[in-house]
Amino acid sequence: MDGYDYLIVGAGLFGSVFAREATDAGQKVLVIDKRSHTGGNIYCEKVAGINVHKYGAHIFHTSNQVVWDYVNRYVSFNHYVNSPVANFRGKLYNLPFNMNTFYQLWGVTTPEEARAKIEEERAEFRDTEPTNLEEQALFLGGRTLYETLIKGYTEKQWGRPATQIPSFIIKRLPFRFTFDNNYFNDRYQGIPIGGYNALTEALLDNVEVRTGINYFDDRQHWNDQAKRVLYTGKIDEFFDCELGTLEYRSLHFETEVLDRANFQGNAVINYTDKDVPFTRILEHKHFEFGTQDKTVITREYPHEFSKDNEPYYPINDDANNALFEQYRSLANSREYAQKFILGGRLADYKYYDMDDTIEAALALCAKELPAAGA
Ligand code: UDP
Fold this sequence. Notes:
CATH topology of the largest domain: Rossmann fold
CATH superfamily of the largest domain: NAD(P)-binding Rossmann-like Domain
Order of helices and strands: EHEEEEHEEHHHEHEHEHEEEEEHHEHH
Strand order of the largest sheet: 7-6-12-13-14-11-15
Bound molecules: uridine-5'-diphosphate
Helix content: 25-40%
Number of helices: 12
Number of domains: 3
Largest sheet: 7 strands, mixed
Structural class: alpha/beta
Distance between the termini: 20 Å
């Protein structure tokens, strides 16, 4: 039939950026998504007048000027700075690891004292070459910091011992000797004014979108609609898991509306003790400096991934990465590459932040859209 130039499977951030660029380049685009809404995991639901991050907290942060300029064409950002607090057995600590944290852990008041204390704490680990997250954390900050703020959280989050988790995950967190509670080192940060849905709606403005449609219910039919197909779902599912199944970590959210204005005084409080079953509590209004009479909180529970829940985090260990590479070779083979493009967090099997997703989508546009004659 070839009615469309592109069928885009998945109306998340990756698919939406591609849809915007392809449409602006004069291509005829159809976007389908199995959910009842667009936006993928950045979608927010209004509850009691508050934007609730339905698929987990999303805080936009980037140092990529191109990405920042790009999103600012569609929305403006507020001045939210993520400064999560950790609760370990009732005592509070600032995150990421900084002078406030070191003061709370050890009573040290100067960078010099903090460095000396950390050197003492990590003395027995500093000559090792870290090969996993536990070793990396001990190497960085020693045992007290690891056991108070990292071990319990990490093992709940990933559902496995920290010795079986790749060290790159902990390298996401800054470690600094200033009194700076900003969770990110990036140059730009904030939440879209009007919420994330405003971004998605702007990206998909004038784009034909059909929600509530599962591509896999009739692949042939959907493939026949377009010359090219951009698939943004799980790569193993695209190939009917013929080489094996990629592992993910899922989450379960319990959301409550509370009849009070302020529950915890911060958007994010992490619970780092392994005996608390959730990893964090979000209080959504604080992402947007909300002044509503009520508040909405979400407890986030890590969960085994299965067919009945969402694949939030790829498990990027060696075995899964090797399987992913096999799938990627298949996707790159002539048979598939002529018609199909795979991209986004699930198809790339990567722990993408939103700016990574947009960067990857724009890179695809640069490659794909001129080739399409646009
Ligand atoms: N982490 C931790 N303690 C915390 C917060 C994070 O040990 O209080 C570790 C944990 O291993 C986690 C990783 O840092 O998986 C990355 O955390 P981040 O907040 O970047 O994860 P996300 O927000 O993507 O879930």
